[in-house]
């Protein structure tokens, strides 16, 4: 069961991010499938799904909100504190990126290219995060991702990687619907490894 009020914040934030990036050119992106509970690897493409929330595949959407209560170490700040623009650009390539912070709970960080188009969106939840994480983990198409934090899942319906460490959760949406699903997963995993070390 989701924490009261959690889905509405996620959907509102997703709508804001999608609206802000609708001018991006994108090819749209179908997704292929892996069995629920299997591990994501560079070659696995998770299934298109009916997981909770709706986000455009034209541009990175706000990652699913997952919130956590205190403790967990590392930064006590915002999503942008977990991943610098230079680190993000080093992973996805394509030139320098700038970051734009959206404070709140969860907080969001949007990384944009020189053309102003969003390339990556991250979220960082620090209040009731495990409840949100567990809700997304129960979605029928969610795929477990080994080796990140205390647990990680790929949510194909919103092309987002969620990583839990202690009682905090970071969400990463990298690339656009025009990028291959396997590439988006690889970018998200690499970005997640950087972010989780700062949590």
Can I get a quick summary?
This protein has helices spanning 6-20, 85-92, 129-137, 181-196, and strands at 98-102, 107-112, 118-125, 143-144, 151-155, 160-165, 168-174. It has 199 residues and is α+β, with helices and mostly antiparallel strands.
What does this structure look like?
The protein has 199 residues and is an alpha+beta fold. The chain has one domain: Protein Transport Mog1p, Chain A. 24% of the residues lie in helices and 20% in strands. The protein is built from 4 helices and 7 strands. It has helices at 6-20, 85-92, 129-137, 181-196, and strands at residues 98-102, 107-112, 118-125, 143-144, 151-155, 160-165, 168-174. It has a 7-stranded antiparallel beta sheet with strand order 1-2-3-7-6-5-4, with helices on both faces. Strand 6 (160-165) and strand 7 (168-174) form a beta hairpin. Helix 2 (85-92) packs antiparallel against helix 4. The longest helix has 16 residues, at 181-196. It is globular and about 35 Å long. The two termini are 25 Å apart.
């Amino acid at each position: 069961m989701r924490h009261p009020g959690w889905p509405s914040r996620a959907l509102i934030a997703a709508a804001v991010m999608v609206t802000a990036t609708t001018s991006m050119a994108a090819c749209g992106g179908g997704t292929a499938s892996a069995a629920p509970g299997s591990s994501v690897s560079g070659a696995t493409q998770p299934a298109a799904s009916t997981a909770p929330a709706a986000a455009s595949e034209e541009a990175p959407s706000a990652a699913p909100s997952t919130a956590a209560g205190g403790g967990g170490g590392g930064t006590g700040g915002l999503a942008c504190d977990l991943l610098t623009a230079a680190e993000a650009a080093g992973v996805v390539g394509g030139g320098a990126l700038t970051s734009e912070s959206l404070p709140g709970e969860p907080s969001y960080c949007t990384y944009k290219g020189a053309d102003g188009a969003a390339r990556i969106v991250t979220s960082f939840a620090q209040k009731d995060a495990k409840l949100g994480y567990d809700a997304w983990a129960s979605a029928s198409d969610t795929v477990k991702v080994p080796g990140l934090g205390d647990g990680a899942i790929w949510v194909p319906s919103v092309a987002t990687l969620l990583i839990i460490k202690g009682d905090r959760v970071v969400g990463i949406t990298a690339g656009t619907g025009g990028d291959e699903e396997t590439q988006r997963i690889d970018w998200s995993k690499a970005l997640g490894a950087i972010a989780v070390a700062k949590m």
